[in-house]
Amino acid sequence: MQPEAAEELSGLPRATTQDEGAPALPRTGLGASLAEIVRISAQAAPGMMTVHAFVVVVQGLAPVASAWAMKLLVDGIPDPAVAPAALAWRVGLFGALAVATAGLPHLSQYLGDCLGRAFAVRAAADLFSATLRFAGLARFEDPGVLDRLRLGQQAADAGQTLVTGGFMAVQSMISLIGFAAALWVVSPVMTLVAAVAAVPGLVVQVRLSRRRNAMMMHMSPHERRQIFYGGLLADGQAAKEIRLFGIGGWLRDRLLGELTLVNEERRRMDGRELRAEGLLGALGAVVSAGGLAWATFAARAGALSVGDVSMFAVAVASTFGGAATLISTASRVYSGLLMFGHHVAIVRAAPDLPVPAVPTPVRPLAGGLELHDVWFRYSPDHPWILRGVSLRIPHGATVGVVGANGAGKSTLVKLLLRFYDPQQGSITWDGVDLRDMDPAALRERISGVFQDHMTYDLTARENVGLGSLDALQDLDRIRVAARRAGIDDVLSALPRGYETQLSRMFTSEADKEDPETGVVLSGGQWQRTALARAFLRADRDLMILDEPSSGLDPESEADVHSRMRAHRAGRTSLLISHRLNTVRDADLIVVLRDGVVAEQGTHDQLMAAGGTYAHLFRLQSAGYTDAAGGAALTVEGSR
Ligand SMILES: Nc1ncnc2c1ncn2[C@@H]1O[C@H](COP(=O)(O)OP(=O)(O)OP(=O)(O)O)[C@@H](O)[C@H]1O
User: Fold this and answer.
1) Where is the ABC transmembrane type-1 domain (predicted)?
2) Ligand 1 atom nearest residue 451's Cα
């Protein structure tokens, strides 16, 4: 029954209906970003952060103190009341402050870099731990989330800039307040003029930062496409098709198109910033020059001392320079905070699949798995893929699932692994709804091979061992699994046996000519390796095999299936295959069509029923028989 219809009719079973797709990422403000940055910095290197904060305060005060020492020195030169010893002390003070002013920035830079690197590591750890908490797949298929993930990653990598920028802003602020106070002593009016002149800069920089952040978000899909095209053009696997179909130039042009678009947008943004900063700089220079003219004539009239003028000149220049530095640093920090908002959104994202506070433990399968009127679509914009599937996978039985391309077989597998939750109906494990379980605990009890299995650029041992991390170093167990998958002979005969890299990526330029550096397996060999990975955790309660032999030659396929049959005996498994001879001995065969179970039964029952399965089985058998007949005829004819 349609979920909408079920909703309207009271009394009809409706297990649960949940919002479609994972919950959206949270909206985050600047405060949240700032709090997160302080937290990460404090956790990453607490001692260094304290020392850096102290150095920054001293560094911020040093230029103001230097200017004041200079004023004392200049005023003391012509003053007979100042003894030579006192004058020497003033020179010494000025010199000491000059040394501090010259040396501290290097120490500050070093501390900032160290802190920034520690920050980047911690931020990356938080980000990737958060992505690992995404138990389902929906977020990885949402372009908006992928954009934010990429920008959040960039923000984490740019931690050094963010941390040093933050400290620099604090330091500029301290210097600015110091110089403004010094300026106030000489001329309160000039201080107010300088403060008013700084306001437009602040406003403009904040607006520019917002615009830059919006531009980066807007450009993100173009950058993702650019990375995709670049990846294809540099990928050894894609090289075959690119050359066969001659599409290299087309891909390159698309890459350049995206790159040009992104560059043009960035250039426009840089131009805006250039114009705004140029105008603000000119405004500052005009106010400084006016102030200096006033101070010069005030000194002539005897209202100011020469030391006051020197102090005034330094204070005006430093106030404007400091304000400009503060504004541009603050704007960089502001941009960084906006960018870091993407990191915070990922790290603070609510679970994508609802898990109860106290999940039901996943016990060893005793009765079976059951789908109850399961309806599923990938999102409200997509069509229904499963439209009320009810099916039982009894404990200890092998269930074969067949159906045309796109019938929803792999989707069924993804639901059994709780990569998504059905919108309507439920899936139970010994009567317990999968939604009441922790997805990780559920998957601990399952093994399997996906149709699009992974090929890891790692050693042969690791490629199999990843199936069960506790066996990663246990070569005996790994070899037993590989033997079951019929790939042990191949892997042990590799140049370095199981320690051979199954990779096209050379470990270094120096050893790339070494034939033992890495080997390339064939498609079928990779498939058997993936099968070995699944067999390594064969002690689990459910084995899911989605097209495990599609790339194998007939002899290998027969061999693999006889091994799998031996393994499956008495165990619960789900086998998906288009080659019907490989599922014929399953305890139950299910035909999926139009989103529902169209037929189910044993091979003999389905053949007797004469439906879709029987039709397809006869079609495939006839193909083999004709081929065999054809081959026989050819042999006959050639004699
Ligand atoms: N992540 C996804 N987002 C949106 N639609 C999807 C997604 N994955 C699969 N589909 C769609 O769901 C339908 C069922 O796909 P599924 O992979 O389950 O079919 P299948 O029966 O395994 O097909 P095949 O025999 O070709 O492997 C297809 O129409 C496919 O386009």
Assistant:
1) 53-335
2) 27
Residue to mutate, 139, 384, 385, 580, ligand 1, most ligand atoms under 8 Å from C-beta = 385
CA of 378 relative to ligand 1 center, distance in Å: 9
Q: What is the pLDDT of residues 312-359, one digit of tens each?
A: 777 777 777 777 777 777 777 887 888 899 999 999 998 889 888 999
Mean pLDDT of 43-55: 88
pLDDT of residue 344: 93
> Whose Cα sits closest to atom 7 in ligand 1?
378
**pLDDT bucket at 10, cuts 50 / 70 / 90:** very low
Strand 398-403 to 386-394 pairing: unpaired
Q: Which residues pair with 424 in a beta bridge?
A: 375
- Residue 469 vs residue 517, higher pLDDT: 469
Q: Is the pLDDT of residue 197 over 80?
A: no
Q: Which atom of ligand 1 is nearest to the CA of 547?
A: 27
C-alpha span between 398 and 590 (Å, rounded): 11
What is d(CA 186, CA 3) in angstroms, rounded to the nearest whole number?
Answer: 78
Q: From its phi and psi, is residue 246 left (phi > 0), alpha (psi between -120 and 50) or beta? A: left
Q: Confidence class of residue 504 from pLDDT cuts 50, 70 and 90?
A: low
106 CB-contact burial (10 Å; exposed 0-12 / middle 13-18 / buried 19+): exposed
Which of 352, 389, 401, 409 to mutate for ligand 1's pocket (most ligand atoms within 8 Å of CB)? 409
30-217+278-347 CATH:
1.20.1560.10
Instruction: Return d(Cα 275, Cα 204) in angstroms, integer.
Output: 11
Q: What's residue 238's pLDDT?
A: 86
pLDDT band at 364 (very low <50, low <70, confident <90, very high): very high
Cα 167 from Cα 172, distance rounded (Å): 9
> What residue spans in the chain does CATH classification 3.40.50.300 cover?
364-445+540-639, 453-537
At the topology level of CATH, where does 364-445+540-639 sit?
Rossmann fold (3.40.50)
In angstroms, the CA 192 to CA 252 distance is: 57
Write out the CATH class of domain 453-537.
alpha beta
Q: Best of 352, 386, 405, 411 to mutate for ligand 1, by most ligand atoms within 8 A of CB?
A: 411
Report the alpha-carbon distance of residue 546 to residue 269 in Å, rounded: 50
pLDDT of residue 49: 85
User: Other CB atoms closer than 10 Å to residue 23's CB: what's the count?
Assistant: 14
Q: Where in the chain is the domain with CATH 1.20.1560.10?
A: 30-217+278-347
Over the stretch 588-599, which tens digit does the pLDDT of each residue have?
A: 999 999 999 999
Among the residue ranges 47-56, 184-193, 226-235, 495-504, the one predicted with the least confidence is: 184-193
Residue nearest to atom 25 of ligand 1 (CA): 405
Q: Compute CA distances 237 → 266, 371, 628, whole Å.
A: 33, 39, 34
- Within 6 A (CB) of ligand 1 lie 141, 378, 382, 385, 403, 405-411, 451
Looking up tokens 């037993």 gives 480
Q: Among 472, 473, 519, which residue's Cα sits nearest to residue 496?
A: 519
What is the rounded CA–CA span in Å between residue 541 and residue 357?
25
Distance (Å, rounded) from C-alpha 567 to C-alpha 56? 67
